[in-house]
Known about the structure:
Elements: E1 9-12, E2 15-20, H1 28-39, E3 46-50, H2 52-61, H3 65-74, H4 77-82, E4 92-94, H5 97-107, E5 118-125, E6 131-134, H6 139-147, E7 151-153, E8 156-158, E9 161-165, H7 174-179, E10 182-188, H8 211-222, H9 225-237, H10 246-268, E11 273-275, H11 290-303, H12 305-316, E12 319-322
Parallel strand pairs: 2-3, 2-10, 3-5, 4-7, 10-11
Antiparallel strand pairs: 1-12, 5-6, 5-9, 8-9
Amino acid sequence: xxxxxxxxxxxxxxxxxxxxxxxxxxxxxxxxxxxxxxxxxxxxxxxxxxxxxxxxxxxxxxxxxxxxxxxxxxxxxxxxxxxxxxxxxxxxxxxxxxxxxxxxxxxxxxxxxxxxxxxxxxxxxxxxxxxxxxxxxxxxxxxxxxxxxxxxxxxxxxxxxxxxxxxxxxxxxxxxxxxxxxxxxxxxxxxxxxxxxxxxxxxxxxxxxxxxxxxxxxxxxxxxxxxxxxxxxxxxxxxxxxxxxxxxxxxxxxxxxxxxxxxxxxxxxxxxxxxxxxxxxxxxxxxxxxxxxxxxxxxxxxxxxxxxxxxxxxxxxxxxxxxxxx
Length: 326
């Protein structure tokens, strides 16, 4: 004799969603977060990622997190520069083709709709500002669109839409997890201890031009090839002193905007749990600090693991619910 669920009833299980936020190099902390959650037996059913969160989330959903972690831990400062294929004539300083080729080596024929874990990458449409949820097509293409930092990486064209970084509209995509049916959502915010304490500084005066800046202008006028290359490097990544380069200015400005948007959206649609890795002191282009970032991500989970485990277990408990009969 078979005993089952009575007619008109169904067993409902609470799906777990994880929203992986943007944060450039600091995104390697997501690897540590996912590792620590997995070790604790917390495996998300839904993964939504923005920017670097889409890269880590996509690799996780595709079962390629080991390969991504190996790549990240193997990076040195020299190797990071090797992946930066500069392009001063297009719509981004970096084409990103070398990085895409590396991702293609592991994910070339993997499509989102084929993944066992539900995955969505968030991007922003140029011109309209629409928030675009990429839930089908090649995983690599969705990643490229989501991490295409404006002015740094070349935007991606998908289905006739030109897309760039999703952090402009949804930096920590909790709302995506909710829309896909997550009953319990864990948000990973990489910027909580970086921009969140912004304040007002009054009566700030102008800073005179440094001797190095004056010398750099002289080099530019000299039109010397080697000097021009050195000047370009300083312009992009900053000089040896505290003055920032173009890339740092652009990314920091973007992250300040992202932080303000994230705080607003998380207040309006709060997650059930927030993991805030402590990442102060690690720069946006410090991709070669993967060991430290992954460790900090794991530590962030372990700080609140007991409470997180209890809450997830409670949401995972099956419950009987009435189903609609048609």
